[in-house]
Amino acid sequence: MKKLFIILVLSSSISNAQWIQKSSCKKSAEKITNAAIESIANLEYLSAMGIAKAALLLDPNCGCAQLVLAAVSSPNPNWGSQKSKLEAIDVSKLSAEEKTWHSFLMTSREDRPDVAKSAMAEHPESPLINWLATTPADFNTFKTFAEKFPEQASASYNMMSYAYLRGDYGEPNQEMAMDYVERSQQMHYGPNSYDSMAEHYASIGEYQKALELQLKAVDFAQFGSPYWNFARIYYAKVNQEDISKQLIKNQKEAQDAITANDYETYSKFMHPDINHMTGDSNLSPFYTFNKASFERERVITWKSFELENMDVNYSPDMKTAVLTFYASGSYIFNDTDKEVAYSTRGSSVWVNTDQGWKIMHSSWAPNKNGVGIPE
Fold this sequence. Notes:
Number of strands: 6
Helix content: 40-55%
Number of helices: 17
Strand order of the largest sheet: 2-1-6-5-4-3
CATH class of the largest domain: Mainly Alpha
Radius of gyration: 29 Å
Largest sheet: 6 strands, mixed
Distance between the termini: 79 Å
Structural class: alpha+beta
Number of domains: 2
CATH topology of the largest domain: Serine Threonine Protein Phosphatase 5, Tetratricopeptide repeat
CATH architecture of the largest domain: Alpha Horseshoe
Order of helices and strands: HHHHHHHHHHHHHHHHEEHEEEE
């Protein structure tokens, strides 16, 4: 009884947008299933799956909810379950619209655009069937859909915001992009429009605002949220200066540990699953730098070693950093006490892992008229 009460509360608070005109589901599950389709349109597949499962609790034979579960599954023939879920549905019990959706999903990705056009001719007043014909390859299809079905236009407005931002409707128009994503938010309470607005702000370099909006998307269901990745990126962008300072500090501390032959200190910058490859300034072949490197007999002793003019650059996802720098100092040969002036340039690659920033690669070469380490 408690489960039924929760589902009935859900059904009274979900979107009123009617996506399918006639369903094979009982009335108690039909409204919930429409909300699931609304979530699919807004690219909120995990929400759609949960809502569809709620509908199936009320009506185990709800074909539309079964189609939702198939639609959000992967069509990849090697590992996806979409085809098997579609084959398990009793097509004879589906409504005409549901049968058309089933046929569309059973069609190859290449043939779906043509199938969608034929389906629209057969069901011109069905929002669901008309939605199947929308495509990012032609943003005008979203504009057409929104004009024809204004009550189901939330997802179209979201997609249109990208079109305005990119200039698909003429000159890029950031103001119109923000206006349309706000319209989407007003019509549909879900995380994807916040993710979109965050992306719009990120595109103009306003990462603090992007982070705030992305965290709103995460807040809908934080565990395993698909929106965490960009939240981490925006957080790193906001804190890029501090991260760069820490990476420079890490590089200096790691290098001090190498020159002092201090493996214990150096090891905290290593990751057990990362093979640190390095190339020395004597231009010998690349090799793996690990604990054994600290155990080799040393032919030189460093008198001084300084890293200078350090710079940090990041990959777009902020998970990889490339440090470039120059090094100067001097060392003596242990068997002759001969002192050599040292002058090189170098670079290193650091990766942001679940254990923090770890070193992955480094490379050194003598400066012009400079000297590196001996062979």
